[in-house]
Write a structure and sequence with these properties.
Keywords: Cell membrane, Cobalamin biosynthesis, Membrane, Transmembrane, Transmembrane helix. The chain is mainly alpha-helical and 316 residues long. It has twelve helices and two strands; from the N terminus they run αααααααααααββα. The chain is 70% helix and 5% strand. The chain has a two-stranded antiparallel ribbon with strand order 1-2.
Length: 316
């Protein structure tokens, strides 16, 4: 038994739970590093790896996914010996909640100032849509939908993976999500090669997206909505979305805000006609600000859930 008098499982559970909370606080205070971000470094390494692994074939994509994610998970397992400090730093590294909220506020500020050029310049930091074809309402809708999806991807999912798998879970999830953003497209180059990245990301986000949906439903009154409206939108509309996870978080957010999302969506690789989610008017700048408040509330709820889950799972 360690000198502290606490059994090792209790120490491990405490280290995980406290490390997740501390890392969340670091993200709230400092946000993402502006230079030398480890996730950007992983992206550079993954792009270099792609030059060796790429082929217009699903098997090549599987190899790419296994090598890239596997190396990150192995690194996470090695540094996990650092205990609470390692968990806190890894959590800070993979979270993007503070930067997401800042981008949402900045987009709303530019739209309120009728600065469409500035809003279009900012949009790529939120999502991969083509800003050149979007008017003010289109920019508000794109930012709000991205706010909903990235609340899950940038905060809820990494926290939950950290709760159940520690540092390897934190870093491994971020690697999976980053690869999906890089190659998980249905276009000529990545239709087959990116299949493994897209499917792995779908699986990794199945539970986190639904936890995000539950938190959004429960916290809807904080933005002037009702849990009932958020729940109805989720149940009625989420299944219409082509993504099994984005549909949940976007529909519940639409219901909580009382707006309608979806419709024609212009990406750089082409246009898609998305189903409508929720009932009400198209979102405007005020709704985007409410979405930022909801995102921040869900993030706080997620770290509480992750701390509890981390304590229970890592203690057992």
């Amino acid at each position: 038994m360690p000198a502290t008098g606490y059994p090792r499982p209790v120490q491990k559970a405490t280290s995980t739970a406290c490390g997740l909370v501390l890392g969340f606080v670091l993200d709230r205070v400092f946000a993402d590093p502006r230079r030398w971000h480890p996730v950007a470094g992983f992206g550079t390494a993954a792009a270099a790896l792609e030059r060796s692994t790429y082929a217009d074939d699903r098997r090549a994509g599987v190899v790419h996914e296994v090598v890239a994610v596997g190396s990150v998970v192995a690194f996470g397992a090695a540094v996990a010996r650092g205990g609470l400090l390692a968990t806190a730093l890894a959590t800070w590294t993979v979270l993007g909640g503070r930067s997401l909220a800042r981008a949402g506020h900045a987009m709303a500020d530019r739209l309120d100032a009728d600065d469409l050029a500035g809003a279009r310049e900012l949009l790529p930091s939120l999502c991969g849509r083509d800003p050149s074809v979007l008017d003010a309402d289109g920019l508000a809708r794109a930012a709000l939908e991205s706010m909903a999806e990235n609340t899950s991807d940038a905060t809820v999912a990494p926290l939950l993976w950290g709760a159940v798998a520690g540092v390897p879970g934190l870093l491994g999830y971020r690697a999976v999500n980053t690869l999906d953003a890089m190659v998980g497209y249905r276009n000529e180059r990545y239709e087959r090669f990116g299949w493994a990245a897209a499917r792995t990301d779908d699986v990794a986000n199945l539970v986190p997206a639904r936890v995000t949906g539950v938190l959004t439903v429960g916290l809807a009154p904080l933005v002037g909505g009702t849990p009932g409206a958020a729940w109805r939108a989720w149940r009625r509309d989420a299944g219409k979305h082509p993504s099994p996870n984005a549909g949940v978080v976007e529909a519940s957010m639409a219901g909580a805000l009382g707006v309608q999302l979806g419709g024609r969506t212009q990406y750089r690789h082409g246009a898609e006609l998305r189903p409508t989610l929720g009932e009400g008017p198209a979102p405007r700048t005020a709704d985007l600000r409410r979405a930022v408040r909801m995102s921040e509330a869900v993030q706080v709820g997620a770290v509480v859930v992750a701390g509890i889950v981390g304590w229970v799972v890592r203690r057992g």
